[in-house]
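Cross-posted from the bioinformatics board.
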Amino acid sequence: MKFIIAVIKPFKLEEVREALGAIGIQGITVTEVRGHGRQRGHTEFYRGAEYTVSFVPKVKLELAVDEHMADKVIEAIQTTGQTGQIGDGKIFVLPLEQAVRIRTGESGTAAL
Amino acid sequence: MSFQLFTKRLALAAAGFGLTPLFASAAEAAATVNKGDTTWMLIATCMVVLMTIPGLALFYGGLVRAKNVLSVLMQVLTVFSVVSILWVIYGYSVAFSGNASAALNPFFGGLGKLMLAGVTPASEIGTFSKETNIPELAFVIFQMTFACITPALIIGAFAERMKFSAVLLFMVLWFTFAYLPMAHMVWFWAGPDAYTLSADNLPLISSLVGADKAKQLLDALAAATTDDAKAAVLGEYGSLVNAANGYLFNLGALDFAGGTVVHINAGVAGLVCALFLGKRVGYGRDPITPHNLTFVLAGVGLLLFGWYGFNAGSSLEANGLTALIILNSTLAAAAAALAWTGGEWIFRGHPSLLGGASGAVAGLVAITPACGFVGPGAAILIGIAAGFICLWAVVVLKAKLGYDDALDVFGVHGIGGILGALLTGVFVNPALGGTGVTDYLAAGTSVATAAYSFSGQMYAQIMAVIVAIVWTAAVSVIALMICKAVTGLRVREQEEREGLDLVDHGERAYN
């Protein structure tokens, strides 16, 4: 099993979700986050005060998937989440040791 | 503004000296109260209340961080509550009654109207037209709303760091020793009817200069055959009446709705507070940004609406001048909003909502002293000047001098007020579309427009600005030193980081 974390632009969320649904992904967790990579935020002016906002709003997706789905998921996120502009985000893939469905107690891939 | 309840004063004198009541009612027949003026004054009063709560509260509340929004709302509400009560106890008397001491009278009123002594629903007071009165209580409540909003304006300067107890003590001291004398100096005068030297007006004249002197002046006027001789008698009478007026009023300083009394007064006090308290923790390093600009625009909308009551109510009558004032106020606010955002667009790249909202307030501040003295074209020019100059003050001047005037009370109200006071002196000129200065001194109920003198008018305006700055700065420094000794000025650094909502008031705005 793989645990996939993707940080994407917020307005790309719906496209990415549809693409993941199309390849059969059923479960996804979404969090609104802030951060920065090479894209270094923006400047805001409030009367005389000027502030550089280093942390840009992003959306973080978390998915637990079966081994054979991982590459498809990565491809779906990479293609639909892309604008070609700086700040499109990152995808991280981790090995996943265990998954348990709380309602039934099923574990492993059956719980995904 | 006008305010001496002559008929009332006369009635009291008549009772005291055993004169016939008929004598008093003769004067009352001359000046009348009409329901149109009265209705407008009552509505205008309610509108100015809306300016403070929630207009100013939302404007300031939206500009601070989420952890301090309640402290600002609470300070505005509490200052309003305290001052409205002090106004009735002694404020009205000190601002708008005569002082028996000739030395003090130009600066402070007397204590004859403590707890509104002698002011009843039947009491009347003059407006700006001869033989036109409004109920004195309408004037009392209208002026009460001015007294309430002015100290509340200062809250923006020390927002997010001053102790609540210190805020309250400061406000009581500042209201008493800065607001009341300024209101007295600028707005306390004998009223239009006092300047009518005529036998029909004998009761009022006698109440002002004494019965013997009144008879002597009327005889002299009757005996005068040439215009010069008549003018000399009128001039002598005028100077006797003027002796009862406020200091800046007699200088000829024009301040229609409170440029010096409200905006320079509060703006300079704000600057002193900002300098005295020092900067907020993290100022210039941490992002200290407005937490809700939607509140800010809602607050400015209520301020604009209420300002119509503030400016147009200051005419004390409902007539064409009142309509001109509403027009001028709108034009100045609009022109300044456009100028401020235009300036931002040119120099910073973005026309911001906060800039537009700040500009509208700056324009309203600057038009306040001018609103009933200038034409619509001048109102637009005053607005444009206020937009650019106040933008410069909050962006360039504040950064250069390095003080932390949290919500720009000085930059908007102080600078805008000074600008408005000076431009009033320029644009009151009838040649520039202004109304000119009314000369009420006459042997009949007629009035004339006094000849305009640029140097004379500007001297009066500049003196008024200087007196306002020096007076309010001195009172503010002393009041802050007293607060420092009694309550301490600032919350502790850790408390400031937590936010005043929790520390001072034990609650949070957003849960």
